[in-house]
Design brief:
The complex is a heterotrimer of chains A (275), B (233) and C (243). Chain A contains five helices and twelve strands. By secondary structure, chain A is an alpha+beta fold. Chain A has one domain (32-274): GHMP Kinase, N-terminal domain (Ribosomal Protein S5, domain 2), CATH 3.30.230. In chain A, helix 2 packs across helix 3 (153-166). By secondary structure, chain B is α+β, with helices and mostly antiparallel strands. Chain B folds into three domains: 9-55, OB fold (Dihydrolipoamide Acetyltransferase, E2P); 67-143, OB fold (Dihydrolipoamide Acetyltransferase, E2P) (Beta Barrel); 148-229, 2-Layer Sandwich (Ribosomal Protein S8, Chain: A, domain 1), CATH 3.30.1370. Chain B contains four helices and 16 strands. In chain C, the strands form two sheets. In chain C, strands 1-2-3-5-4 form a five-stranded mixed beta sheet. In chain C, strands 7-6-8-9 form a four-stranded antiparallel beta sheet. Classes of the chains: A alpha+beta (275), B alpha+beta (233), C alpha+beta (243). Chains in contact: A-C, B-C. The B-C interface holds B 10, 12-16, 27, 29, 31, 36, 38-41, 55-59, 61, 87-89, 128-129, 155, 206, 209-210, 212-213 and C 37-38, 55-58, 67-68, 109, 111, 114-118, 146-155, 189-192, 227-228, 231-232, 235-236, 238-239, 242. Strand 12 of chain A pairs antiparallel with strand 9 of chain C, so a sheet runs across the interface.
């Protein structure tokens, strides 16, 4: 059964009313417009011992993701494919409302939605991670850790995972004489498609993008859509105790697609700056 | 102003019952001027204005002044916890149980009411922020020493009581017994004639099952007459 | 492995003979478990799912209770024998996520504010799985909640739509989910036209999403009708057996 500690912090009614009143006037508690995303900054390759890593900041929300490549066995039904495993932890240092312990439903949900996006879009061609068919493949572990929670850990996690993959370098492998030798030389991980999540929150009858912490506490429902570079949707996850109409979903999809393109541009620029 | 059901028609949650200037009875809710059922049950309109749904099932939510039949489940230092067949546990303070003030350091509460004892009590306070408070100090309240206890679904209590208590009065008169109906679905039947006491219990279960079928009172009465004729009771 | 199975034949029929916009056969039974306050059993295609509802009841541990409304708790679990390769009985990450999304799909329908400091528990056991289990679970859970007499704004009905061989299809079975191009579970309160669950994996364009949602609503309206029939016939039954 779920623990209530994390997301059921009781917010004073007055604060909720203030936020709703501001929304009526077309502005948010942090001054943004309803369709305005916070500033995103990415630091690539922050952990040298990881094959790939990134810290993503969305406003004050901070998340780090690390990619580790481990030799392993493929799944029996996909003997010629590498393995992708995404794990997320909302650790106590990120927020007074997070408690220590094994991953709960919120951690698991984020991990699975990020995984879904990367898998559906085929961000990494898993066949290129096959070393010896049926016996040895690269297993890509993406571990995502929240460092500071100021709302929208979903997008920050998805972006951190994607950015960590973008800058990841994997050791070359030689398979002479049936034995596997991991070489010193490294090559970039073949990332061929994008998965960028954009999350919306519904508060009353208003929809805002990239909710901050306080907006998340009072929101009725949440909708996350992940997009690839062609504007196709590769993951959707509705969350929260509220509802959406079909029109609201299509509104989020249209706006999300546009925002995902802006975010992709921004990441591209930041990546180019370090290369 | 349309009404979309016939009297005592079975409706389900979300069924649109009426549109227009009607009053909300029980187990219905409104969005603007549209009235919907919130439970599975029989839809009714009273006085051409008040729309309600009689639920098939439901739990007991205490109301102040309700008579309830409870079971002691815990003994504290100065109070008892009482199971009143509700998601909310009843709370009986010593001062609401004994007429004379007592020294709780000197007396054992268990001597008065122990775990497992049955009481007829009245709800004196209940709001959704704290547990219901009970009293047994008034007349006709107190510990139950004899009789048969039967439990029915709380939503069927009005049917067992009948219009203006007609069903209960009829049972008491025809079977020569005393029946205390707890709003929480627990009913106490006491009679000198044990056979009649148990027969009353059986009848109450039948009334619960057939609560939504018309002509119930007459059917019950004829069952009693038949049993008397056959010398069963 | 993808592409090795043909999901649509030349006549546009699916592996089980259905048309693209056809539901699998559905059977819903109400009140099958006598201890629970409410219960329902659903068969949808080869899915067999049992749902029990307990509540509103006192919530233990007390500190988890909410002062202004009931807590809805939901446990989605698959029996080890429900799938071809025995599944470990320990809750998997998938079951944890599904328990959460199912809870959030049902919550908007319940008048939780009427029962502060209590819990309403929904237990879902998948006895046999063949794709679309979370949707069938939601459908059955809504019926079980209504059977328990818990006040609701509307029932919640759910179905998974998806894309197979480029076409939008209704009520994917397991093979279609595994080998198709997209899987989109949707739940709605049909009477209020509100969506309470929406997920997707695979790749779809915005237009395909719109089309899929319309098809889902279509299927959901049919399922909604079946839910109401199952509930109302149970009521009639309890009258009829005594003449």
């Amino acid at each position: 059964m779920r623990s209530l500690a994390k997301s059921e912090e009781i917010i004073p009614v007055i604060k909720k009313r203030t936020i709703e009143a501001l929304l009526e006037k077309g502005t948010r508690i942090d001054g943004r417009k309803l369709d305005e995303y916070r500033e995103i900054s990415v630091k690539f390759n922050v952990i040298e011992k990881a094959e790939g890593s990134a810290i993503v900041n969305i406003g004050n929300t901070m998340v780090i993701a690390g990619v580790k490549c481990v030799l392993g066995m493929p799944f029996s039904d996909t003997p010629d494919e590498g393995v992708l495993i995404v794990n997320t932890e909302l650790i106590p240092l990120a927020s007074p409302t997070f408690e220590p312990g094994p991953p709960g439903e919120d951690d698991i949900e984020i991990a699975r939605v990020v995984d879904r996006g990367l898998r559906s879009t085929k961000a990494v061609d898993l066949r290129k991670l096959c070393i010896i068919q049926g016996r040895r493949v690269w297993a890509l572990y993406i571990d995502i850790y929240a460092l500071n929670h100021d709302g929208n850990l979903m997008d920050a996690s998805g972006l951190a995972a994607y950015c960590a993959l973008l800058c990841a370098k994997i050791s070359k492998v030689s398979t002479e004489n049936e034995s596997i030798k991991i070489l010193e030389e490294k090559e970039p991980l073949p990332v061929q498609h994008q998965a960028i999540p954009v999350t919306f929150a519904k508060i009353g009858d208003k929809i805002v993008v990239d909710p901050c912490y306080e907006e998340e506490l009072i929101m009725d429902a949440r909708l996350t859509l992940s997009f690839n570079e062609e504007g196709q949707i590769c993951a959707i996850q509705k969350g929260g105790r509220g509802v959406f109409t079909l029109d609201e979903i299509m509104y989020c999809a249209e706006l999300g697609r546009k925002i995902s393109q802006d975010i992709a541009e921004s990441i591209k620029r930041q990546l180019e700056n370090i290369q | 102003m349309p009404v979309f059901f016939t009297q005592r028609q079975i409706v389900a949650p979300g069924d649109l019952l009426a549109e227009g200037n009607y009053s909300l009875g029980s187990n219905v809710y409104a969005i603007e001027n549209r009235i919907y059922s919130s439970v599975l049950g029989l839809a009714e309109i009273k006085d051409g204005r008040v729309i309600s749904v009689i639920p098939l099932k439901g739990c007991y939510i205490p109301r102040v002044n309700d008579i309830v039949i409870g079971k002691i489940i815990d003994v504290g230092i100065a109070s008892w916890l009482v199971d009143i067949n509700s998601p909310y546990t009843g709370y009986l303070q010593v001062s609401d149980a004994l007429s004379k003030p007592v020294d709780i350091t000197k007396i054992q509460l268990r001597k008065f009411l122990d775990i497992g004892d049955i009481i007829v009590a009245k709800v004196t306070a209940f709001d959704l922020t704290r547990d219901p408070q009970l009293t047994i100090k008034e007349s006709r309240l107190g510990k139950v020493e004899k009789g048969s206890l039967v439990e029915i679904s709380p939503v069927k209590v009005p049917r067992v009581i009948g219009k203006k208590g007609s069903m209960i009065s009829m049972l008491e008169k025809e079977l020569g017994c005393e029946i205390i109906v707890g709003q929480n679905g627990r009913i106490l039947v006491t009679s000198r004639n044990k056979a009649r006491e148990l027969f009353a219990v059986r009848l109450i279960k039948i009334i619960e099952r057939e609560a939504h079928i018309s002509g119930l009172t007459d059917r019950i009465k004829s069952m009693i007459i038949k049993a008397k004729k056959e010398g069963v009771i | 492995m993808k592409g090795k199975i043909c999901l649509l034949n030349e006549e546009g029929l699916r592996i089980d003979g259905r048309k693209l916009d056809q539901l699998r056969p559905i059977k819903i039974e109400v009140g099958v478990l006598k201890n629970a306050d409410g219960s329902a059993y659903i068969e949808q295609g080869k899915n067999k799912i049992m749902v029990a509802v307990y509540g509103p009841r006192e919530l233990h541990p007390r500190h988890q209770a909410l002062p202004d409304r009931a807590v809805l708790r939901c446990r989605y679990h698959m029996a080890p024998f429900s799938v071809p390769e025995r599944k470990s009985p320990a809750p998997s990450r998938r079951e944890v996520e599904l328990s959460k999304v199912i809870r959030q799909a049902l919550e908007p329908a319940l008048f939780l504010e009427m029962f502060p400091r209590t819990s309403i528990d929904v237990f879902i056991e998948v006895l046999q799985a063949d794709g679309g289990t979370r949707c069938a679970s939601i459908t059955a859970a809504a019926v079980a909640l209504a059977d328990a007499g818990i006040p609701m704004r509307d029932l919640v009905a759910a179905v998974a739509v998806g894309k197979i061989e480029g076409k939008i299809a209704l009520d994917l079975n397991h093979l279609e989910d595994q080998y198709g191009e997209a899987d989109i579970p949707v739940a709605m309160m049909p009477g209020l036209d509100q969506i309470t669950l929406l997920q997707a994996d695979g790749l779809i364009t915005l237009d395909e999403l719109k089309e899929a949602l319309k098809l889902a609503k279509n299927g959901i309206m049919q399922i909604y009708k079946l839910q109401k029939e199952a509930l109302k016939s149970k009521y009639l039954e309890s009258g009829e057996e005594l003449g």
